[in-house]
C-alpha cells in the first residue's frame, strides 16, 4: 500500500477498512459532529468511530445522499420511495433507526419527484432538494424541479419548469452565499449529449440567470460526447469552481485536456485554467486550498493551484478496479472517503466480487499501515473512580442503552440497572470498599468488567 506514517498521531486517526456490499448506489460519506464517519453504499449505512471501529450497519434503506443535523442529533437522507421512483425523505438516529419518513403517495400521482441532490440551508431552517419531476415510467417528459422542505421533510415551496424538447434535471445544488440563493448544475437525461448549464436561483427557486457551460461543443455538434463537468463546488464564498475534461478537440475551441473553470456568483464564466489531472472530485479545505481526487489518489493544491502533495490510497492491484467515489475533509484536518469497484476472485475476471472500502487519512493523505483493518475494543470507563455517591459509564461514540451489574469482590450480586450511556448510577448505598462492575452494551452485546473504588 502506498502511504506514509501519521504526522500527528495524538490528534488524527487513520484507517482503511473493507465493507461487504453487493453494489454501489450513490455512494456517500460524511463526518458527524461526534467525529464518527457515516458511509452510505447500496441501500445501507455504516457508522464508524474515529478509530476505524464499526459501530453498526444497516442494509434496508434506499438512501440517496445524507448529512448530519447537529442540533437534533440525527442524519437526514432522501430515499427512493419504491422501484417506480418517487420522493421520500427520512431521518435516522445515531443507532441507525428511522425516526420519521415522509413519502410521496405514488398511487395518487402520475408525475413523481426524484431527488438528485440536497443541501441544508440552516439560515432558513430548510432542506433544499433538487432533481426532476416526470411521468412514471417515461424518461422523455422530465421537468427541472427544486423544493424547500422543513426539518420534518414536508414541502414548504417548490418550482418546476421544462425547456421545450429537452429532458434534463438538476444534478447538483450549491448554496450561493453572495446572493443567498442557489447555483444548480444540470444533466441531460441522454448522457451521451452531456449538455450542461448552470442555473442561478433565488431563495425560493425563482430563476435569476442561466448559462451554458462554455464553450461546450455539445452546443455546436450534438454528437460530441467527451466534454463534461466532473464536479462543482462553492469556492472562496463568492465564486464557484468546476473541473472539466475535454476529449474532442476538433469540435471545441479548447485544447484537449483537463480544466478548472471559475464562475462568479451568477454562474458566469470568469476564467479557465488548464491542469494536468483528470480530476473527478474537488473540495475546498479549511485553509482555503483545494483537494482533488482522481481514481485512487487524492492530492492537495496550493492557492496557485500547484500540487503540494499527492497520495495513492489503494495499492496497485491488477486483479482489482477500485475508485474513490466520494470524499470530504474531517474536523481534525484529515480526509475521509468511500471507494467501490470490482475484484477478480482467484485471479479470474469471469468471477468477480463487488468491494467497498472506507478510509481516513491524516492531513497529508497518509494512512498508518498498522491501523489497517484493526478492530479495536471500545473503551469503557467509570467516572469518577474512586466515587462516593454517583458514578457513570462513559463510552466514547456510543449512544445506546447500557445494563450495569454491581458485585462485591467475592462475586456476590448486589443490584442491576439499565440506563443510557453517560447517565448517573446511585451508589450511595454501597459501603467503602472495592466492587466489580459489569457493563453490557445493548447494541453490540459486548460485556466489560471493571473495578470501582467507593470512598
Question: What does this 3D model show about the protein?
Answer:
This protein has 455 residues and is mostly beta strands. The protein folds into two domains: 357 residues, 7 Propeller (Methylamine Dehydrogenase, Chain H), CATH 2.130.10.10; 74 residues, Immunoglobulin-like, CATH 2.60.40. Helices cover 0% and strands 53% of the residues. The strands form nine sheets. It has a four-stranded antiparallel β-sheet with strand order 1-28-27-26, with no helix packed on it. The chain has a four-stranded antiparallel β-sheet with strand order 2-3-4-5, with no helix packed on it. A hairpin with a 5-residue loop joins β16 and β17. The N terminus is likely disordered.
Mean pLDDT level: 80
Radius of gyration from CA coordinates: 25 Å
Query: Overall 3D geometry?
Result: globular
**Biggest sheet strand line-up:** 1-28-27-26
CATH fold description of the largest domain: Methylamine Dehydrogenase, Chain H
- Count of the separate structural domains: 2
Number of strands: 35
Question: Which strand-content bin applies to the residues?
Answer: over 45%
Terminal Cα span: 52 Å
